[in-house]
Amino acid sequence: MITSDLLIGALLGGSAVAIMAALAGALVRQTLAKRAATRAAGAAQRAAQAAEQRAETALKKAEAAQRQADANGQWYEAVVGEFGRLVDRLRAVADIEAGYPGVENPGPLHAFLTDTPVPGYCHDAENLVRDRAAAIRSDVSAAARAGVRGVADTAQSYLTRLQIKIDEELGIHTDIGPFHQGLIEIDHLATQALHSLQRLRILAGSWPGVQRDDCTFREIVESARGRIGPYLRVDYNYEPETGETWVEGRVVEPIIVALAEVLDNATSYSDDRVDVYVQEVQAGYRVVVEDRGLGMNSFQRAEAEYLLSRHATLEAAGLKDERKLGFAIVGRLACDYGFRVDVDAPSSSNGVKAVCLVPAHLTGRSPRPEPRQAAPPPREEPEPAEPPSITTAAGLPKRQAHARPAPTARSPITGAVPAEGEDAGMESLFEALRAGYADRDTEQGQS
After folding, report:
1. Could you say which of 1, 200, 265, 375 is the most buried, measured as most Cβ atoms within 10 Å of its Cβ?
2. Parallel, antiparallel, or unpaired: how do β-strands 274-281 and 340-342 relate?
3. Beta partners for 275?
4. Residue 330: how many CA atoms within 13 Å on its side-chain side?
5. Rg (Cα) of the chain, in Å, rounded?
6. In whole angstroms, what is the distance from residue 446 CA to residue 216 CA?
7. Is 267 exposed, middle or buried (0-12, 13-18, 19+ CB in 10 A)?
8. pLDDT at 412
């Protein structure tokens, strides 16, 4: 800057060159000062901008950190809540596996965890509980079945001895009277008790506990009829060509047990008569049981067909009412021994029509020699022939029904009898009913 001192000095004696030099130096210094000031201002401005950017970046980072912290907190709460829900889910799985009705699995709590590993871990935990429950149930059921088989074997052995003793007493006390009739009634109760034990041992995975020789369909039907309470309401329409057809001994007892279950079901749901007849078909023979009850709806029929077609076993953890296990017993026997039972055939009486199909390869001609019949004396009634004595493998006697003239075709053999012949009729009936159980082998009849 040109000051007053410079002007005065120039005027007073300085040369023009000195003045110009002074002026130039002043201008240079002034320019340099401005540039320095400008640079300083720019630097300050840049510093301020950098500081502002850093502050803005720091703010953004702080905001991002806060958002992440909030998200982490939400994830934490979600995972904690999901594992809390997992406890409820596992409890529900345990209740469902235990067979409690009306239990529902609540499922996941948070849908936004779907794409994370958490649902997979929860699913694995549920499967682990199911697997362990199934293993425990299997172990418990196996132990229960073994226990049931042991108890049933022992009780069946004693009841078998009881029936053998009853047969011996009936052979001694042949006079028809109150004592004789009482023995017959006791024998019938023992027969029903034995059938109840057979039901349990079959569902427990064992065989029926009785091995028979070959028998006719007539003997099979009468033996099955004798194992239910209301046996007098069962009408067997006997036909010689089917009733005297023989069935292989290996499957006789299973078919009798299955048929007894069907008859018990028919008489339980109908107060009227129950018809039984045997038909020959292309595949073998059909034993038909038809009642006059209310029938079954589509759901009951579907459930019955399901039970009749599966190999059921007793589940100790989910044991149902023992009185409602008949179809399950029939289904197991049918699967084990190669016959079939179904209830899907239409009934002419609007009730239930159950059909037991025995394949042709399980039937055949009489395995026993025909007894020689002597010519009857003139003008006298012929005496009924006595079949040959049959014994079991252990030599125990088998009580056989006395041979009698075959009834006429399609006529019931179990109808009413005159009052004066009631005792004799009951004796003949129970002779036939005991024909199966008296042949049991107490030493080989255990599984």
Report:
1. 265
2. unpaired
3. 235, 290
4. 28
5. 49
6. 24
7. buried
8. 34
